[in-house]
Amino acid sequence: MLPGNMAVTSPTGAPRVGHLLIIGGAEEKLRQRQILSRFLSLSGGPEARLAIISTASSLGDEATDLYESLFRSMGVAEVRGLRPLTREEANDPALATQLTDATGIFMTGGNQLRLSSVIGGTALGRAIIERHRHGTLVAGTSAGASAISTHMVAFGTSGATPKQRMTQMSAGLGLLPGVIIDQHFEQRNRLGRLLALVAQSPALLGMGVDEDTAALVSPSGVMEVIGKGSVMILDPARLQTDAYEVKRHRPIMVSGVVLHSLPSGYRFDLRRRHLLAPLRPVGASARELAQLEAASRATRRLIRRVAAEGADDTAPERAARRALRARRDEEASE
What we know:
- The strands form four sheets. Strands 3-2-4-5-1-10-11-16-17 form a nine-stranded mixed β-sheet. Strands 8-9-12-15 form a four-stranded mixed β-sheet.
- The chain has helices at 34-43, 61-73, 87-90, 93-96, 112-119, 123-133, 143-146, 191-200, 286-290, 297-308, 316-333; strands at 20-23, 49-53, 78-82, 104-107, 137-141, 151-156, 167-171, 179-183, 205-209, 213-217, 222-227, 230-235, 240-241, 254-255, 258-263, 267-269, 274-276.
- The chain is an alpha/beta fold.
- It has eleven helices and 17 strands.
- The radius of gyration is 19 Å and the shape is globular.
């Protein structure tokens, strides 16, 4: 563990960027905690200094409190929550200095456009980039994952068929160039919109991350898949498309995209766009499995609410009705 705010350096003496942990949302918080445990390990273990940024969440301090309690239960003593809601707050130098000695930064789920609109280009946004450039691990789940890239999915509709105007792209926080990320990928049927995005912007790799799954990107650009699902990589280097002439909301022709569907243990070089040899999956410890029994009903309910955020980008009222039905079902079962 490095003392204070000393930077990690490369063999040449220059600062070395940290890892990125891109989580597809709904990561396991009660049983194995494989993804959260990896985040903690790379951040320094029990000696880590963590910052939780919950600006994206609509659940207020509940989202911050959830992750603070989770990481404290995993043995971390120093966890701080940051929740700027306006650009004025995000430009407060005192807030940005709270990241000075952070060894791990975790961005929660919710609404990625809120996150990028409030933080992007502010003192806090620049502090995140600066800490990552000097070795700090930055992680994002769900909306927080989308915002990690330079180009970001702002919102859109689901579906397997790529169509014109089915999604909107905006600027993310700029930590991962050359890639556009979508989350809850299989669970919310988002293949079509990611295909549409790479058809319209073939210089970008598309990355779709399933729930309870993460893409761990090393400083050299090598991605390792962690978790229960898969990470899908769409490489449009040999793309053929008619996206530039299709009007309104009609289907787009997309051909020649190379698709890689990678489960846990597989690796992919994002810079060279090349599949690498897989790693052996890591199993859960008995201690992690035992932690399930300690979780309260209130924590379980909050976990479900956090995982449900942003479920329907274009129809929040339907998402609210589903959440209400889910709460009623939980109450009826208890």
